[in-house]
Amino acid sequence: MRPLKLGSRIFVDGGDAEETKALKDALGFLDGQTTNPSLVAKNPEAKARLDRGEKFAKQELLDFYKGIVQEVSMLVPDGSVSVEVYADAGTTAQRMFVQGKEMYAWIPNAHIKYPTTAAGLEAAELSVKEGMRVNMTLVFSQAQAAAVYAATRGAHKGQVFVSPFVGRLDDRGQNGMSLIKNIMDMYAVGDGHVEVLTASVRTIEHLQFALALESDIITAPAKVLYEWAENGLLIPDAKYHYDPNGLVPIPYESLDLAVDWKSFAITHELTDKGIDRFAADWNALLV
Ligand code: G3P
Q1: Does residue 187 lie in a domain region?
Q2: Where residue 175 falls among pLDDT bands split at 50, 70, 90?
Q3: Res 1: pLDDT
C-alpha cells in the first residue's frame, strides 16, 4: 500500500520488467520507472546473449528496448516510464527528436529522456511544443536545471522532469543532495511545470533525505527500495538530518528563470562523461 504521508512519487531505476514486477509486489505500489542505455545493457536477457557471444543488430536492439519498456509500462499503467534516446557527443537535436518521437509512440505513458546539453535542450523544446513529455537527464548543476525550466516554458505540470544525478556528484566529493535542495528552492518561485526527479540514488540516506525534502519524484535502484521496504517504508519529516559525511556542499546560485535558456552555462563535464558512458554501453551491445 502506498504510505499516506508519501509526498514523492517513487520510481525504480532499472531495465528488467521481472525486477519491476517483484519490487512492485514487495512495496505494494510503484509510481513509475526510469531506464537508460546502461540499464538495458544490464538486463539479464541482454547479458545472457552477450555471454553466448551474440550481439544485436541496430533495429533488433531497439525492438528489445521497446519490449522491456512495453512490459514495464503495463506494470505502472497510471505512472510514467522514462525512455532514453541514443546520443553521443555528435548527435544533433534533430536526430534526438526523431528518435524521441518514435520512442514516445511505444507506450502511452512515456517520458523521453534527453541529455541536458544544448542539443538535448533544443530537442526538448521541440518535443514539448508537440505535447510530448520529457525527462531531462544527466543534470549536475543548478544552471542546467534553470535551462530546462526556460527551454520548456509553457509545458503543463507533469510534462517535464529534471533529473539531477546525486551519486555521481558524491563520487567526486561534492554533496549531490545539496543540488536537489538548491534546484527545489530555485523552482519554488516558478510555475511548477518542471518536476524534480532525484536520480543516481545510491543509498537509503539519499532516498530518505529526498523524501524529507519532498522531491516530486525519486528514482532508485531496486536494491535501495527493498531496503526501504525492510524499514517499513519509513518517511522522515522535514527535520530529518542528512549527514553529508564530509562531502562539500554545492552553493546556491541566484538565477533568473525568466531569461532565454541559451544564456545559461549549460555544459558540465559530468554530463559529457555520462553521455559517453551511455553511448559506450549501448554500442557494446551492437554487432
Ligand atoms: O537514475 C540515473 C542512474 O541510472 C544513474 O545512476 O548510479 O549510474 O550514477 P548511477
Answers
A1: yes
A2: very high
A3: 85
CATH assignment of the domain containing 162 = 3.20.20.70
5 among known catalytic residues: no
pLDDT digits (tens, 9 = 90+) for 138-156: 999 999 999 999 999 999 9
* Among 15, 21, 29, residue whose Cα is nearest residue 68: 15
Which spans in the chain are helix H?
A: 17-27, 37-41, 44-51, 58-75, 93-104, 118-129, 142-151, 166-171, 176-187, 204-213, 222-230, 269-283
Residue from 5, 21, 101, 113 carrying the catalytic annotation: 113
- Output the CA 180–ligand 1 centroid distance in Å: 15
Cell of 124: 526538448
- Here the cell at position 277 is 558512458
- pLDDT surpassing 90 at residue 228: yes
The pTM (predicted TM-score) of the whole model is 0.98
Which grid cell sits at 66? 521497446
Question: Is 1 inside a domain boundary?
Answer: no
- The answer to whether position 64 is within a domain reads yes
Q: Which residues pair with 112 in a beta bridge?
A: 83, 134
State which residues form the domain around 137.
9-283
Q: Which residues pair with 198 in a beta bridge?
A: 218
Q: How many structural domains compose the chain?
A: 1
Ligand 1 pocket mutation, candidates 80, 138, 140, 168, criterion most atoms within 8 A of CB: 168
190 pocket-lining for ligand 1 (C-beta < 6 Å)? no
Position 3 in a domain: no
